[in-house]
Each structure stands twice: as C-alpha cells, then as structure tokens.
Automatic annotation (TrEMBL):
Principal location: membrane
Residue span, FIST domain: 32-219
GO molecular function: kinase activity
Membrane topology, as annotated: Multi-pass membrane protein
Taxonomic lineage from the root: Bacteria, Pseudomonadati, Pseudomonadota, Gammaproteobacteria, Thiotrichales
Species the sequence originates in: Candidatus Thiomargarita nelsonii
A GO-annotated cellular component: plasma membrane
UniProt protein name: Histidine kinase
FIST C-domain domain span: 220-361
Pfam family, one: FIST
Length: 374
C-alpha cells in the first residue's frame, strides 16, 4: 500500500458515519493494511466499542490505535461538537511496529512484553495517547521516551467531556498507550507553536509548587505587568485566554518553550499561579496567543516539512493540535487543517484536538504537531 486509505464523516448515528468512512476508502478486499488510526468525537464516546468492532470486521485490520477528542480532524476538515469519525489504514511490515497497552504506574509490564522488541528492532518512533487525568502523565511520557533512547514520541492527551477512552488494539483507559515503530519506518515530524513571546527570558527566584512568588528577584506580578504592556496591566481581567506563561527548554537550539495556563493572579501579594510545578532557578517568559502569529508559525513549519519531502507525497499523516487552537484560534472554517492542505497538498490525514500535546519527551500546550509517513 503506497498511499494509506482514509475517510472522515459526521452523522447522527455512528453507523452512518462509519459507513461513509468505508465508502471513501473504496474497495478493501485486496487491501493488505495492518494498522488503523481511529479518532471519534466525544459525542460518540459511548459507541467507541461498537465502532472499533465494526471497523475490525469490515476491514480485517488487526491492529488499531486512537482516542477520543472534543474535536477531531482529517484533510481540510475539522469536526467540533458533532458526532464524527476519522479513520486511516496503513501498511507496514509486521516486524516494524508494535502496539502497547496502557502504562499506568511503572514499566514492569511494558518491559516484560515490549522492551526486547524495542531493543531488537531499534524502536525509533512512537505515536502515543494519554489520559489527562493521570497525575503522573508527564513523567510517563518522559520515561517512555527515555526507553526509546534516541527515539521520538508524538501524540496527545484525550480531550473529552466524559469517557477518556484510548484504543490500543482494544479499548483501554488511563495512563499511556500507543504504537512503536522500528527504524525501518521512515517519518518526519515537526511542531508549531501557537503563542508569541512578549518579553525577555526571566528567571524564577522564589516559588512554591505552582506558585511563582518572585521573578528576577522582583515580585512576579510586577515583571508580568511590564511584559504584557500598560493596557493589559491596567485590566488584568483581559489576560485570560490571551496571555500564557511559557517555560523555555534549556539547551534547545530552536528556542523551544512549553506554554502553560495562567490559573491565578494574586494582586495583593503580587504572585502568579500556573498549571505546572516550578522551581527557583527555572527560566520563564510570557507569551500572547495570536491568530496571525500562530498561522505564520504553522506555515513556516509546513514549509520545512515540504522541503524535507523533496517533491514526494507522504503516504499518510497524523496531526495533533491543542483544543485552544482549531476553531478557537483560527476560526470555524477548518482553517488550521486547510492550511496543511494548501502547503502540502492532498494526502491521507487524521488526528484530533488534544488536552495537551506530546512531542519528544514533553507535554506541550497550544501547539500543532504534524507527522508524515514517508
């Protein structure tokens, strides 16, 4: 299978959406696809067991990975708050990939069932899905990446208003699950940030858990106000959903940073609360979420991938973006994924809008991550 098969559709009944996806994929009787990527909106979460069984029966594809999202996507189309399905079928040599089930607390089970495969096959890449309710999910992502050595992870955390289901051949929940690929599988991947740095990089000089007390030996709120400008500083009610703290990644040669949510401001004590644990000595900066800046960075990322393709069309791709992007940033006309199509052309693509994006060893926010199978 040179090019992957894919389909996407919305319908009130899951059966109708699933059938529409199959119709788009065409005749599968001679297909040798052996892994499927399946994403449904959370309005179909209760039906995921039936949806997965249906696709297994209709396609004879034995291996499946995927999850649930409040919004999902495919080529040039985003589905938000409607019952919808996106599915893609790929073909790889059986020895080149391995699906693993949920890792919840430690890697004992993973070591018993998959570590030898990773070592023998030189596992270099993984697509993973995680549960945002798991208190140690960031640690699990890091530990999983460490086990791959020079390997690379991409994926996202389930976004759902009720069931947080993952698919790893069967239905699982909690922790981290996904599929690992050996060095025989060629991929290229890239991340796009969604926020623009506002001021210089600072240093946290006093903190307690997720509370920032002092930055550059000054009250944290004073530094924050200087960076965001007088207009916002005089009306802090405006910063919600607009201004985000970011933690620069030490040693990054691309100036990469992890965007986090600003969850509290204490004007009396001039302190800030963010959605991550911080320590004294850590770098921090402040960023602003802007559509135009995010679009420019997305186009830049896509052009880098286009250059890597050297005129070839990818066999397929997966796209994981943040819930704060999509229609919440670019508008309601599927502008984010349409931009992918405009730069890279038509190719099989599925994905979802996550509650946190996984790239290499870390959990990101407000990013878009595109991975192409070559």
């Amino acid at each position: 299978m040179e090019t992957f098969k894919f389909g996407h559709a919305q319908a009130t009944k899951w059966e109708d959406a699933a059938q529409a996806c199959l119709n788009q994929m065409g005749d599968l009787t001679s297909s040798s696809a052996n892994i499927g990527f399946l994403y449904t909106t959370d309005l179909l979460a209760d039906d995921v067991p039936d949806i997965l069984d249906y696709f297994k029966q209709q396609t004879n594809v034995p291996h499946w990975v995927g999850t649930v999202g409040i919004s999902i996507c495919s080529l040039a189309k985003e589905y938000f708050n409607v019952p919808a399905i996106a599915v893609m079928l790929g073909e790889f040599s059986e020895e080149s990939f391995s699906v693993f089930s949920t890792i919840n607390k430690n890697f004992e089970e993973f070591s018993r069932t998959h570590q030898s495969w990773c070592d023998n096959k030189q596992a270099m890449f993984g697509i993973v899905h995680g549960d945002p309710r798991h208190q140690q999910i960031a640690k699990l992502v890091y530990q999983m990446s460490e086990r791959l050595g020079d390997g690379f992870l991409v994926g996202g955390l389930t976004s759902s208003r009720h069931q947080h289901l993952q698919i790893a051949d069967t239905l699982v929940e909690g922790g981290l699950s996904g599929v690992l690929f050996s060095s025989a599988v060629a991929v290229t991947t890239r991340l796009s940030q969604g926020c623009l740095p506002l001021g210089p990089r600072h240093q946290i000089t006093e903190s307690s858990k997720n509370i920032i007390v002092r930055i550059d030996e000054r009250p944290a709120l004073d530094v924050f106000k200087e960076d965001i400008g007088t207009e916002l500083a005089n009306d802090l009610d405006q910063v919600a959903g607009l201004i985000f703290p970011a933690l620069p990644i030490i040693g990054s040669d691309t100036g990469d940073y992890l965007v986090r949510n600003l969850i509290g401001i204490d004007p009396k004590h001039k302190m800030l609360a963010i959605s991550d644990v911080v320590n004294s000595g850590m770098p921090i900066m402040f960023t602003r979420r802007e559509k135009e800046t995010a679009h420019q960075d997305l186009v830049k990322m896509l052009n880098i991938l286009k250059k890597r393709l050297k005129g070839k069309q990818p066999k397929g791709g997966v796209y994981y973006s943040c819930m704060g992007r999509g229609q919440n940033l670019f508008g309601k006309n599927s502008e984010e994924v349409k931009t992918i199509q405009q730069v890279l052309g038509d190719f099989p693509l599925v994905g979802f809008f996550a509650n946190g994006e996984i790239y290499y060893q870390r959990l990101y926010g407000l990013t878009g991550i595109l991975t192409l199978f070559l």
